Amino acid sequence: MAASERNERPHTRRSRLSRRAVAVGVALAAAAVTTVACGTEEEPLPSIGYMIDNTVTSYNANTVDGAASGARQALARVLPGFGYVGPSGRVVADTDIGTATAVPGEQLTVQYRLSPDSVYSDGVPMSCDDLVLTWAAASGRFSAPDDSGADSNVFDAARRGGYADIERIDCAPGSKDATVVFRPGRGDTDWKALFGATELMPSHVATRVSGVTDLVGVLSGGDVEAVRPIAEFWNTGWTLTPGALDPSLLPSSGPYRIESYTVEDGLVLVANERWWGNPPGTDRIVVWPRGTAAQTAAEEGQVQVVDSADGALGHTAALGEDVETTTGVSRNLEQLVLATSGVFENPSARRALASCVPRQQLFDELGAATEDERSGPVGSRLLPPDSPLYPLVVGPSERFGSVDLDAARAERERSGQDRFEVRIGYTTPDMRRARTVELIAQSCRDAGIDVVDAGSESFVPSQLGAGEVDAVLSGTAGVSGAGGRADMEDARGALSSRAGSNVGGYANGRIDEILDGLLVAGDNATVLGLVEEGERILWDELPTLPLFLQPRNVGFAPNMHAAVGNPTTAGAGWNMDRWILTG
Questions:
Q1: Nearest-angstrom CA–CA distance, 457 and 468
Q2: What are the tens digits of pLDDT across the range 328-377?
Q3: Is 202 helix (H, G, I), strand (E, B) or coil?
Q4: Dihedral sign for Cα atoms in the order 466, 469, 470, 476
Q5: pLDDT tens per residue across span 542-557
Q6: Which residues contact 184 (CB under 8 A, 6 or more apart)?
Q7: Distance CA 141, CA 154 (A)
Q8: Helix, strand or coil for residue 556?
Q9: Which of 564, 550, 70, 54 lies closest to 310, judged by CA?
Q10: CA angle 73, 79, 83 (to 5 degrees)
Q11: Measured distance CA(408)–CA(419) in Å, rounded
Q12: Cα–Cα distances in Å, from 182 out to 186, 189, 234, 514?
């Protein structure tokens, strides 16, 4: 990864919300005083505390619940890949890991070459086996009947996208080289986003624990039962539980490795002694996710970086004058993900709820304006608001541009329900989302829809599929915290009937075709035609209800070098190996 890219500090805009920040703001100022007192002038300090607004429950950010957690915020420099997402939302090649070069030919073919020096922290070299495991898990190649009798991926993978378009990977087990061949006609325009940060998992661990010795051979074949032991470990074997880590399962391929994880002391990352690239600027980073003693750590001066959705940590307060704080608009789409069963089995019930949700009021009170003035409730799931095509596709959203209680009652009656209850789940504490549910409840009550706040500290988006809630209030693709490069891969992918991140169980064959078409669409005319059709369907069937782009608060203590906010899934931690705090 180019150091200049990770060291740059782009312009950040202070929005009307910039006076508000997380409760730890005052503690950040105290932390700065404390750390300066402990160090000599311009002497790098030994540890930096990094607080995020999400849980970290898995080393594997690629499972459904892992992708919805803060794993990408915490582990981007523990498990890097062939690319990373910069603050602009674009994928940048990470040449520390290796190179990816498209090979001329009729079929898209990409030659991946891992760095000759690349090795995990346990001494096992990185190999093309790692790419094969990533592809096998996300591609959906291995399906079997689930409890309902429907075929589903035996890997609990959140993402699908371009991985499903890979025909094969030519990989000699243990080799540093892999040739990835895409299916004819599937020259994915976003192929550089594949095998990125947090997506390459240590395949040798899966091999050892599952007992499958020929991992590449098994994953390159078609025997689902032979693959199942690998999938079972991939799904649950990398769970991170404070106080119960098995270090042998957690080798790192980046500049940091996990040393420990406890409620009291947070998730401790230390310099990886086997890292072959530039050494990290600070040897020790302590990540403070939800579920740890983060507030106490902040009050005791142990937190120097905060990255949180506005109000997500349960309280807001003015930051000290010495702490640089910005509230900016992320690329994360705040939305309601609706079930397609239970009270919402009939699309009329979904339209009833959408008709009474005060989308404009929610934006006015809880959203933030974008720089190009395309402000207001988001009108597309398939294009971001900064796309030049965006104004051309938002027409269908105008149907739900303002509250219409008469329409809500009519749609509720069409659904065959006299009155129904909607349980909205999200991760607590979160003042902004609690207020969102409160405003929706107030607006929908007279339409015969009783909205219940079903938020909890242990909430995960998969509770929607389990019938424990009726809707999820979350970011793109169920992400609870930092916004996605969803740009729009994650947002689009979560609408596919074959994607694990489709927690609502939405299925529409034409939408699947449109999503597949967008992966390879190379011109604006094709994109526009597909998106226009897709949005007409989606605003009628309403598997999700877009609200607004999520505003995020980012705070850095004084004398923090190379600290740069990133409005994507990686969050501020995207370049943590460049952070230096001097005293």
A1: 14
A2: 788 788 899 999 999 999 999 999 999 999 999 999 999 876 555 456 89
A3: coil
A4: negative
A5: 999 999 988 888 889 8
A6: 106, 107, 167
A7: 9
A8: strand
A9: 550
A10: 85
A11: 11
A12: 6, 12, 24, 19
> Cβ distance 338 to 470 under 8 Å?
yes
What is the Cα–Cα distance from 578 to 446, expressed in whole angstroms?
A: 54
Strands 91-93 and 83-85: antiparallel
- List the alpha helices (DSSP H) in 149-293: 203-210, 215-220, 224-236
- Report the distance separating Cα 434 and Cα 454, nearest Å: 10
pLDDT at 534 over 80: yes
Among candidate residues 32, 556, 559, 48, the one with its CA nearest the CA of residue 288: 48
Res 519: pLDDT? 81
Residue 223 DSSP SS3: coil
User: From CA 242, how far away is CA 514, in angstroms rounded?
Assistant: 42
Helix axis angle for 347-356 and 405-414, nearest 10°, is: 170
What are 87-98's pLDDT values in tens digits? 877 889 999 999
Contact by Cβ (8 Å): 508, 497: yes
**Which pair of structure tokens corresponds to residue 259?**
């040393």
Tokens of residue 340, six digits: 């397609």
> pLDDT, tens digit, for every residue of 34-67?
333 343 345 555 899 999 988 999 999 999 889 8
| Nearest of 447, 503, 371, 387 to residue 379 by alpha carbon | 387
